[in-house]
Specification:
The chain is an all-alpha fold. It is about 70% helix and about 0% strand. The radius of gyration is 28 Å and the shape is elongated.
Length: about 600
């Protein structure tokens, strides 16, 4: 009994250490901004401001937005739901999202501790060491400090839960409830990110490390352990097909298949899993030349290492090295993905890497070099932390982030365009213009750059801005946001009929965007089309209840149709900021109130 209490106390202390290691480096980022894809997925996502609708998460591409219908073929409904939850509980402010990311990372780190306790036979210090290395791994900065990087901690949390539950079922008196729970957890991981497809294989690798390869006598019982995963995979594929159909990322069907590229990509990621470089290291360019050859040798050596370790009886080490390789398979890119290399892909592979590192240290701990091994692990953790903290700090500020990216990779068009956007959001017009010019000098289309800059800075006369947006539309006629911008510019210049046409195109491209319907309502009202204005305003208000002007135009239409009481109901509790709109609202309420009292 006393020994159990001591063990429980040691585990509780280890858990506290792991939680601190996972949270402390990221706490300074709590006041951080929305950066990079956060603007598309959160800030400009009208869905987060509309009444909750489960279908919005279940039946859409993760990257498809209300600005356009473009998607990347990613199906991640649980990630969308987590954004919905944080947006509503935090009023849309970034702090709530950052808190959730840190909590997900801390929970994943705790599950690494739990898995380590299982693999290291209850050796608390070694399991704690692996979990701490995972918590402070520099590659995780992009997945934790970057709000939209949360798909990896979220998927890994479910994945580790699935593996731990499966391993527990192997020793449980009644295994099937645990196996069913493991299958459900795997479904949760798949609904967060596609990389989780490898989880059953990772589970099998760890299981073989514990029990060895199945014999003829044990083959069928071992296979039976994985029966529950079949309906899980079928359910996931059915949900994915219902949402996306046979959609592939844009250009994927035409992209060439390469057998060499996957090896280079896997080798690059494998190197960074064990030896993360300093600096920001955000979506670096692919390896070329000697570096590509070196990455290929790393993959060959790792594959050979799995075989040699298994033959020599190092089953756990072989399984964990195989974990690192197998978990990278979904991103090795037989056909190129939208992002070639990214450290956020390493969140799940690093679980195997840190457990492998500590397992090797544990195996040689009885040698005279034991003290040196412990010191080495401490130094490794300190080095990881020293690289992690500046990276996490960069992700809290988009100007700092993209400035660091531009310094590391001066030829990156993406870095200069994103830095231009960051400058423009702060009102630094000259700096934004300089970055756009640098992007053009690097090969970015000059017309698209001018359209990009016009939308960011709203500079020049109305006619000049209309011409710039029209020119940009000639290059991108399917961009709903550009059509929306054109409509508002035409409306400002008094060309209501042309504005109606522009907004009509915008709503046909982005039917779920409330602002486009509001623009159409205003344009139709300017042309004296009361009924059309009312219907467009009704659409806008239902899509985005926060659009007070849409409710006002809707109410005006109801009053014009002889329904003053309905107009009053629509304006109940409505608050507007613009003086002209406030005066309009007052006149409407007065007229509607008088007419409503006169009705029987």
């Amino acid at each position: 009994m006393i020994e159990r209490r001591r063990t429980a106390l040691r585990v509780a202390l280890a858990a506290a250490v792991v939680l601190c290691a996972a949270a402390v480096p990221y706490v300074p980022g709590l006041p951080g901004q929305f950066v990079y894809d956060d603007h598309r997925l959160i800030v400009e996502n009208d869905g987060l401001r509309r009444p909750f609708d489960l279908r919005r998460a279940i039946l859409r591409d993760y990257y498809a937005s209300d600005l356009d219908r473009k998607g990347l073929g990613y199906y991640r409904p649980l990630a969308i739901l987590s954004n919905e939850l944080d947006s509503r509980r935090g009023g849309g402010a970034p702090r709530a999202f950052h808190v959730t990311n840190i909590a997900l990372h801390a929970a994943s780190s705790l599950l690494v501790l739990v898995l380590g306790l299982r693999l290291f036979h209850g050796a608390v210090p070694w399991a704690c060491g692996a979990a701490v290395l995972f918590a402070v791994h520099p590659a995780h900065a992009e997945s934790v400090a970057f709000i939209s990087g949360r798909v990896d901690p979220l998927a890994t949390l479910w994945a580790l839960a699935s593996i731990v539950l499966h391993l527990h079922a192997n020793r449980a008196a009644r295994p099937w409830p645990w196996r069913a729970a493991a299958a459900v957890a795997w479904l949760g991981a798949l609904l967060c990110k596609e990389m989780a497809v490898t989880v059953p294989v990772l589970t099998l690798a760890v299981e073989c490390a514990e029990e060895g390869l199945p014999s003829r006598r044990t083959l069928r019982p071992r296979i039976a352990r994985y029966v529950a995963y079949a309906p899980t995979l079928a359910a996931y594929l059915g949900m994915r097909f219902a949402a996306l159909g046979a959609h592939l990322p844009e250009g994927a069907a035409e992209a060439s298949v390469s057998l060499f590229r996957p090896i280079v990509v896997a080798g690059s990621h494998l190197v960074w899993t064990f030896l993360p470089p300093p600096g920001l290291h955000l979506e670096p360019p692919p390896f070329e030349g000697a570096l590509a050859a070196g990455a290929t040798l790393v993959v060959v050596a790792a594959a050979a290492g799995v075989a040699v370790a298994w033959i020599r009886g190092l089953r756990l080490q072989a399984a964990l090295l195989a974990w690192c390789l197998v978990s990278l398979l979904p991103v090795v890119q037989l056909r190129p993905l939208e992002t070639v290399l990214s450290e956020r892909f390493l969140y799940l592979p690093t679980v195997g890497a840190v457990l492998l590192t500590v397992s090797l240290a544990q195996r040689t701990a009885r040698s005279p070099a034991r003290r040196g091994l412990v010191v080495g692990l401490v130094v490794l953790g300190a080095t990881y932390t020293a690289i992690l903290v500046p990276r996490a700090w960069m992700w809290r500020d988009e100007v700092r982030l993209w400035s660091a990216k531009a310094r590391e990779e001066p030829a990156s068009i993406k870095a200069h365009l994103n830095l231009a956007e960051a400058f423009a959001r702060r009102g630094w017009s000259d700096a934004a213009r300089v970055e756009c010019e640098r992007a053009v000098a690097l090969g970015f289309d000059e017309t698209a750059a001018r359209g990009h800059l016009a939308g960011l800075l709203a500079e020049g006369t109305l006619e000049e801005r209309v011409g710039t947006v029209r020119e940009a539309l000639s290059k991108a006629p399917g961009d709903g946001a550009l059509w929306n911008n054109l409509g508002f510019l035409l409306l400002q210049s008094g060309r209501g009929r042309e504005a109606v046409a522009a907004f009509t195109t915008a709503v046909s491209i982005t039917p779920a965007r409330g602002e486009a319907w509001l623009g159409l309502a205003r344009a139709r009202a300017s042309q004296g089309d009361g009924f059309g204005a009312r219907e467009a305003a009704r659409h806008a208000s239902l899509l985005n209840p926060s659009l007070g002007l849409a409710r006002l135009i809707w109410a005006v239409g109801e009053l014009g149709e002889g329904r003053p009481c309905e107009a009053l109901r629509l304006t109940a509790g409505l608050e507007l900021e613009e003086p002209e709109e406030v005066a309009w609202l007052g006149r409407l309420r007065t007229a509607a109130g008088e007419q409503c009292r006169e009705q029987p």
